[in-house]
Amino acid sequence: MILCLDIGNTQIFGGVFNEEKLSLQFRKSSRYGISSDEIGIFLRSVLKENKIEAEKISAIALCSVVPDLIYSIKNGCIKYFGIDPFILQAGVKTGLKIKYTNPQEVGSDRIANAVASIQMYPGKNIIAIDFGTATTFDVISKDKEYLGGAIVPGIKISMEVLESKTAKLPSVEIEIPKNVIGKTTKESIQSGLYFGNVGIVRELIKRISNEAFGGEKPIVIGTGGFANMFGDAGLFDFIIPELVLKGIYYSLKINQIKGK
Length: 260
Prior knowledge:
Elements: E1 2-7, E2 11-18, E3 21-29, H1 36-49, E4 59-64, H2 67-81, E5 86-87, E6 97-98, H3 108-120, E7 126-131, E8 134-140, E9 145-153, H4 155-165, H5 185-213, E10 219-223, E11 238-239, H6 243-259
Helix pairs in contact: 1-2, 3-6
């Protein structure tokens, strides 16, 4: 079994693969200052609660957009599992041709999404949209070229900014509104957050498709915590919440093969 971890700005998203089947998913809030003991005990506990023996974990792989947490998590894996984890970072094999001006600037979670995309839909032009802390657009050609993308504030960040930077606008539950025209402040904020993001995503898909693929329709994948919220908006061909974990898993496999 393989344990995969996506270390994000607000959450650690983890999963256990049995062969290629994702048999367990879990989340934990991420924060600065987390210790190796804390992460190691948590990982063993979540496995135990789901009736998975820690000794059956043969490899651990991770990606992180929070560099300060890598050291503690790496040491926690070594101390509590006896495994030095594979880290998806610059220099490892991915099967992608990175076309960024500086390839090292690309977040490892974005690379993971791209790796999973080309493995699952080979020979296709793809836009992968990840609704996390930020909403990221990753553009991959049918020739496995990572062309770049776009980054916009995530829906939760947008709501928090409205609350913190205004005197009278409250925090609201992020949900799909019944109408575009809100009749209360709460409904108006919810409308702006939801339909505003629908508009952003639709426009960027259109512009990316024209610029990168000559107007040819790519496969559009939605992923991340808020992707399902937009499932009925007609934006995606597929919603794959676990896309980043699959990308981490495939990256490990690629490097295990290359290392033989």
